[in-house]
Amino acid sequence: MTDNDQRALTGLSESYAQARLRSEGFNELPRPDQRTFSRIIVDVLREPMLALLISGGSVYLLLGDVKEALILIGFALLSVGITVLQETRTEHVLEALRDLTSPRALVIRDGERRRIAGREVARDDLIVLAEGDRVPADALLMQAHDLQADESLLTGETVPVRKIAREAPVAARPGGDDLPVVYSGSLIVRGDAVARVTATGPRSEIGQIGVALHGLEREPPRLQAQTARLVQLSALGGAVVSIAAVVLYGIFRGGWLDAVLAGIAIGMSMLPEEFPVVLTVFMAMGAWRISRANVLTRRAAAIETLGSATVLCTDKTGTLTENRMSLAELRLPNDDALLAKTSSALPQQFHELVVHARLASTPEPFDPMEKAFHSFAHATLGASEASGSELKLVRSYGLRPDLLAMTQVWQTTDRPAVVAAKGAPEAIADLCKLNAAERSRLRQSVEQMAGEGLRVLGVARASRSGDDWPASQRDFQFSYLGLVGLADPLRAGVPDAVRECRTAGIRVVMITGDYPATAGAIARQAGLDASTILTGDALKQLGDVELARSARDINVFARVMPEQKLRIVQALKAAGEIVAMTGDGVNDAPSLKAAHIGVAMGGRGTDVAREAASIVLLNDDFGSIVTAIRLGRRIYDNLRKAMGFIFAVHVPIAGLALLPLILDLPIIFAPIHIAFLELIIDPVCSLAFEAETDEADIMKRSPRPPNEPLFSWPLIGWSVLQGMLAFAVTGTIFLWCSWRGMPDDEVRALTFFSLVTSIVGLILVSRSFSTSLVTAVRRPNPTLAWIIAGVTIILGLSVLWPPASELFRFGPLHADDLGVTLSAGLGVLVALEVLKPLWRAQLRRHVTPPGPV
Length: 853
Hints:
alpha+beta, Rossmann fold, Calcium-transporting ATPase, cytoplasmic domain N, eight-stranded mixed β-sheet, 32 helices
């Protein structure tokens, strides 16, 4: 006996297996790189506002003012905390989706069978497979009995494939029948086998896809890039002005530490650091809001990109369909047909066909088609007739490469045995010995059903007395009973979701590995244009430029290999489309990562697909992606309102910081005041915009252009106008109070209060770009009401509570002073509402995308 023969009997020794694991690594996929806590901290420390806050705190420490130093440092820690929270929350939610326990595998080692963790399977291990097992690694079949495997996680195909044992390996890819290889991640749905592991971890088919993912670069988040660029430019301008202010203050007024504080306050007032903070808050709140619609956001930047998606690429199996087979049509030899979904009761003439289709299946099926037969029989037949409880399975004949049919023999005590067969229609025709005319009619029926996207099987029956069973199923005297058509049904909400995508100007494209007839049938049911279907074979003949040109008009791609899905996504991107890609299988992972927005299915989806995606649908409902798109558009709309407001509010803040220096008046705002405004009132007020409900036409617009800037010139102009008006009002109050000789602390309090009420006025004006305040007020926003109440309480405490008034250096305010502050906010609000119609046309054209397509 050779060493190979001995190994075939005993498998690896435990010591050899452990040595191989040490040399080749465990049977697991590498985890993607994740941002560590220290890396997040380093990124936050690079922010200019944090440097200003720490600098201000350091100066206060030098001046001996520990209280204000601690306040500023506290604001710095708050900024760090917000960022760390956002970066870690979605990864923690995703980890909850994982099955942290390694799947078990049955191996033969040292001649004994033992259960081990799947990650401990080594190359050349012998694995024992049975129905219901998940294959732990790629392996060559040494023994196989009636083996079928569901490889849909790798190929996207719902229908299991047959497997046979061979002595030598063959070059093969997943998805073909009669191959001697089983693949990691596939599910055994019939039969049993012994196989020798040929590839583990990153060397398996699944692993190779995972390795390929590391070579793909994600799309950079456009909003972060735009806001970072704007903050950098503002920081540069603010630094120049601040340095000039420090020099002038120190030269003409003396007191260089005070000059540094004034310079820091001016720098903080001119630096729109709230942009990244508010962007973070919006994305975090957006992720939470979208999660309530069963959509997990792994990368918050994808929320913004959703609103500009122009093409939604979707897999068929498990995405548009339910990833389960069901009986769709029954057809008798005389061509009488019954559509299962339209019939409330099963006519008597179809009973025998349904009964024998179930009897030709295993009693406890794993095969999705056999599950469909059992389910339909139990739903349409009587309990005893459906269960066949009086029958006993005594013999099974499995599928063979030369006869694609299987037969089950059932015996009772007082009647001849019932023999039921099902399989490929041509195989059933051979078993039943149909003549030429009958075969022609059968072929026409099969072609008609297959054209409807159905997988067609034939069913036959026979009887046999005694218990002498023939060696081959060909030796029974079969009678042809008819055809059954099976389909992976369309998800109930898909047509409505596709229709809403079309209204929103989003083209839905199906990319599937299934046959063109099936793909076309599902596409038409979903409401897609399937007049032209491009197959994988035809796609091979196209260059990248030709494919990009074709991809603009074709909505259905069939018989597509995984690497071709990636080509299609890249071709659409090259054509200028903003691409969202949905999928659930390992084969979808590269295209999910390459797309602008990758959307994975969380329930049936694989870990590899979820890791590659930006968004995960927790309920596997295609309609949820439309909800996510609507929320993405709403978030972007509201984000622009918030950003416009922040841009506007910086004008009076910066103006009031510079005005005393220019006019040689007492400095009214210290860094503590600017920090209070920018790190508390600004972000908190911006939450009011995040809570704004979506506009009525939000899903009737075309997707916004991908190169559209966050700030258009009309938006900047409108924001500057708002800010200048607020500055004019508050600056006038400051100058009037100063020239009247009011104490500095009272001037500071009155100006600060007037500025805050003006900010509230800006919030109310900015709730909508295109509608009036009266219309906006009709849309409820409880968050805004709570914010206004909170601001009122904080302002009251800052004057009435001595520790707070001492910290902010506020003097007492009288009733007429409060009247002035309220009049300031009301005046800003009324004036801007009068001016808004003059800007409305420009804002609608540049801020709101055009109407429906």
